[in-house]
Amino acid sequence: MQDSFDTTTTTHRGKLPDPAPKWQQRWEEMKLFRAPDKPDPDKKYFVMPMFAYPSGNIHMGHFRNYTMTDAIARKRMMEGHQVLHPFGWDAFGLPAEQAAINRGMHPEEWTLKNVAQSRATLQRIGISFDWSREVNSCMPDYYKWTQWMFVQLYKHGLAYRKASNVNWCPTCNTVLANEQAAGGVCWRCESAVETKNLTQWYFKITEYADRLQDDLDELTGWPDNLRALQRNWIGRSYGAEIDFTLENGSKFPIFTTRPDTIFGVTFMCIAPDSPLLPELPVPDDRRAAVEAFAKEARARQQQEDHVPSEDKSGFDTGVRVTNPLTDELIPLWVADYVLSGYGTGCIMAVPAHDQRDFEFARKYSLPIRPVIQEGDEELDPNTMTEAKSSWGTMVNSGQFNGLEGQAGFDAVIDYVCREGIGRAQKQYHLTDWLISRQRYWGAPIPMIECEQCGYVPVPEKDLPVLLPKGDIDFLPKGRSPLADVPEFMNVKCPKCDGDAQRDPDTMDTFMCSSWYFLRYVDPKNKKAPFDKEKAAAWLPIDYYMGGITHATGHLIYFRFFTKFLKDIGWLTVNEPATRMFNHGMVLDSQGFVMSKSRGNVISPIDMMEQHGVDPVRVAMFFATPGDREVLWSEAGMVGAERFLLKLDQFVRSTKESLGKEKLDPDAQFSVDDLNTTDRTVYRKLHQTIAKVDRDFDNMQLNTHIAAVMELLNEAAPGDQLGVPLRGVCAATMVKLMAPLTPHLAEEWWEHLGFGPSVFKSTWPQVNESALPSDTQTIAVQVNGKLRGQVALPADASEDDIV
């Protein structure tokens, strides 16, 4: 490998050498990317991408994501920050285990092999990770603290067991949290999800629902669409729970966000998977038909996010329910558009003022009764073509007639509370987090079941509960494989020393990723998950990057963990990250997302061997803004290499023109002292710096590169420029490209006579006086006398000025 660019070979071959190995060795010797344990508070910068599932080698999707955080880290270094840019492996869970099973390998063997291979690929790319802080969630020194987190949640009353209907993937043979079964399909294998009734471990994330929703307002550095997704998923709504009455006298509570419409109830509906359905006093001659419809509807619900309006279906249970405000007997239907996870799993249907109820009523010829009037418009149920769901004046509502909007809402709630037939209430779409998994490859749940003492947490001194190895049948069977390992299962109770058994399940992989950023600040700590002072020094994360697909899963879970750990005194921050950036996905030539499970990945290794690391980086950056999808094609390599060759030639020829003259890379000039050509280029230089700063902040690295290209075109006829300005232009372009092309930039920086690293230099600063003004001030004279001044655009024509 050459120590510097060879003019002859570079020019005549028309191909750049790849200086990556040389500079990666230098960076390691310099420990350039090592972060201090406790940074200067005014200089700290914590940037990180989401860590990787090691279910295969790094592909071009990973290449794009990690080179973006690499660019951020390198720019912040040049701006004088102490940067923490760590990496690790989300190594437990379904992705790695399923990939191993598909290949007939043990999950640990497959996972560690992929970790080694992926690490080598990332190091070949030259990502500026501080590898001394690497974490791996499947190693005991990590999952010991994942288990510790579980124990803390249990001790604080936030971990509990219950029996309930759960999402079950028949292919992966495990339960799934709601967030992992969106749309009725498994998040990993896309199999249709079924329903099972199982007793599982849950975390009371709903106790944090208000904080998780309200604190989104603090996250101004997060994308608006991501925050909207979280608000909708948490789904807080205000209303009342009102006690209707079954014919046998039992209470039948209903949650509604529109208590002011209660006089318009003409039928009621219950979800097909509601646990209340089997308890209803359904007439004997209808019981079999109700159960058959419910079973069919449950299967249909599992296969789609919602039931399209034309497909709404229901069945009259034959049960009648009394409205407590009207004493009217109302038919109760089982309907597939009602969800059991919201409210009580039952609704009061007001077809005049809810579109879903309206469509259902029209389909089954059920009554429609308007009870809200907008202005002077009187609704005719016979001619209505859609529901009117807006607020208005209560009509046909007895003593509440004439009340408007919020006043009617409040009056009905006050009445039901006073009469003891209801309560004001908040409801959430968010449900408690189901964390039990019936799989081998995960962190064992650190709980022991004793006949005398019930469930007892494993004492902290006995953590970690090690995942058994050796000759174990780890294939999923619909129950945990660990249940068949007696030496693992059979233990003594920590309380009474009696015979007991471990919980056989392992934890959801999202447990590992809910706190991994905290391990980065103190990865070798054997006495605690992390040092509190180190965490206080580095947190919050300044820039977090990952896919929006995690908006309603991981990104809610790790916010929950942060708030919990703050509550129990381990953290000083309320939110884990001040800025979140959602990168776009990399697609193959057919438009499909690159995915190891899909088998359409493209490895960056061959491309880097053929073109060099930095040209591949430039081609990827130049393809589109960072938040957009990329349809990857090697065609972009031609333009990337052409641009870098031109910049290489400009840098080398500038060095030749400088001769032995010493170059000040940060020299500033007075615009008035420059000739016309130099002034034009100097203005362009500082316009470029300003534009790059703006584009970089928005991860629009494509226009960042385009701006440097434009500057290069302006400055390229270098023999027309003054030598000092030419040198500053060359040095500045090297700096501007350094975060994007780190190896070539180092080579160019060295060629210009500087050292030890361009990343120890300073980021270019804008000379505001060199920027052309957006406006010009025109003096207005009348008969030779100054009458005033007017500000006009700088590019205004003479006609515009006149």
Description:
There is one protein chain. The protein has 24 helices and 29 strands. It starts with 6 loop residues before the first helix and ends with a helix. The chain has 802 residues and is α+β, with helices and mostly antiparallel strands. The N terminus is likely disordered. Helix 17 packs across helix 18, helix 21 runs antiparallel to helix 22 and helix 22 runs antiparallel to helix 23. It is globular and about 100 Å long. It is 35% helix and 17% strand.
Q: What attributes characterize this protein structure?
A:
single chain, 802 residues, alpha+beta, seven-stranded mixed β-sheet, four-stranded parallel β-sheet, 24 helices, disordered N terminus
Q: How would you sum up this structure in a few lines?
A:
This protein is of the alpha+beta class and 802 residues long. Helices cover 35% and strands 17% of the residues. It is globular, with a radius of gyration of 33 Å.
